Amino acid sequence: MTDELVLRAPDNFHVHLRREPMLSLVARATTDVYRRALVMPNTDPPILDADDLVIYRDEIIHATPADFVPLMTIKLTDATTPAVIDAARVAGAVAGKVYPSGVTTGSYGGVSEFGAGSLIDVFMAMRDCGMVLCVHAEMPGVTWSVAEQSFIDDIIPDWIAYVPDLKLVVEHVSSSSAVALVKMAPDTVAATVTPMHLTLTDDDILGYRNHRGRRGLNPHNFCYPMPKTDYDRHTIREAVASGSPKFFAGDDSAPHRYQDKEAPCGCAGVFCAPASLPTYAEVFDELGCLDKLDDFAGRFGAEFYGLPLNEGTIRLVRPVGDAGIVPHYLTSPGRSQSVRCWRAGERLGWIVAREAP
Ligand SMILES: [Zn+2]
After folding, report:
1. Of 52, 232, 251, 252, which is the active-site residue?
2. Is residue 213 exposed (0-12), middle (13-18) or buried (19+ Cβ within 10 Å)?
3. What is the rounded (10 degree) CA torsion for 180, 304, 194, 67?
């Protein structure tokens, strides 16, 4: 049994760092592990153009260590134009994100028309200036269990056909349909994979069993797109185990104050950052492909985005004693913000040690 893993300093191609004061509370859980992270733009207020991006990037740089590199994005809306894209690219945007309006946290005011027309002009501008299109692929108005399949079947193939060579990432794949599309699509189409979708099914949210065997709702496993069936999870696990460069790490760590999750209309989003790389390692270990984790977390995403590979390494070890137990909450000094950690109280199979020499 391997007791130590040395990986290239990893990248995380999907994370929500939020704005202050949440930003300062949660960022470290990501920056302790990941050298770069693609920062989602659905903040409050959102990141819609170059000016927003510059302000937000300064906020992040102020709150994070000097060796962390935030990879910036803008949120596409019905009002986004090719000129907005070009200016955002010059300001450093590496991707634009489509949230179909109303499907998840911070998606309001997102895109409401997916057909040809103005959106296609925006996509062409993105392709021409080298920006990646990131998609939350769930169809508004369609029930959660088939919303991703519906978007994958009805929208994405047209986009691929209308704007060939546009780099497109199906974010947080959750269904066998999404995995199949990404596998069959040209090399310009890839997917991020979260630790939740590699380990959970809908039963871990709607029919969760606690340590006493009681069954009920677990809002802290709840994210959009919802984890689905065992078969869906199996196809996602198979995709990463295959070593295909189209599937790479993007943990979708998405903190909310715990009161906002334990609520009548609880927020979607899981604060997985404290457990994300260890969970990926556990899954690759279970699948017998630990040798593929390095590329999944440190190579494939960077190559897809056309970024240089990170220098340096990170070391994972099997924890001893209580070292591997996930804390229950992260709480800000004034207690104004308290976030429940994903897998709170569980013992991780791997933990991040110091940098290898
Ligand atoms: Zn997300």
Report:
1. 252
2. exposed
3. 180
pLDDT in tens, 33-68: 999 999 999 999 999 999 999 999 999 999 999 999
Cα gap 315→6, rounded to integer Å: 5
Distance 2 CA to ligand 1 centre (A): 32
- Dist. CA 252 → ligand 1 center (Å): 5
Q: How far apart are CA 143 and CA 325, in angstroms?
A: 36
Burial class (CB in 10 A: 0-12, 13-18, 19+), 21: middle
Specify whether the CB–CB gap between 207 and 232 falls below 8 A: no
The two tokens of residue 146 are: 């088939």
Number of H-type helices and E-type strands within the chain: 14, 15
The predicted-structure confidence for 266-316, as pLDDT tens digits, reads as follows: 999 999 999 999 999 999 999 999 999 999 999 999 999 999 999 999 999
Measured CA to CA, the distance from residue 124 to residue 162 in angstroms comes to: 9
Q: How far apart, in whole angstroms, are the C-alpha atoms of residue 16 and residue 39?
A: 6
Q: Residue 24 carries which side chain, given as an amino acid letter? A: S
Cα(41) to centroid(ligand 1), Å: 9
Assess whether 252 carries a catalytic annotation.
yes
**DSSP type of residue 307:** P
Q: How many CA atoms lie within 13 A of 110 on its CB side?
A: 25
How far apart CA 328 and CA 321 sit, in angstroms, is: 17
Q: From ligand 1's centre to the CA of 15, what distance in Å?
A: 6
Average pLDDT of 198-221?
A: 95
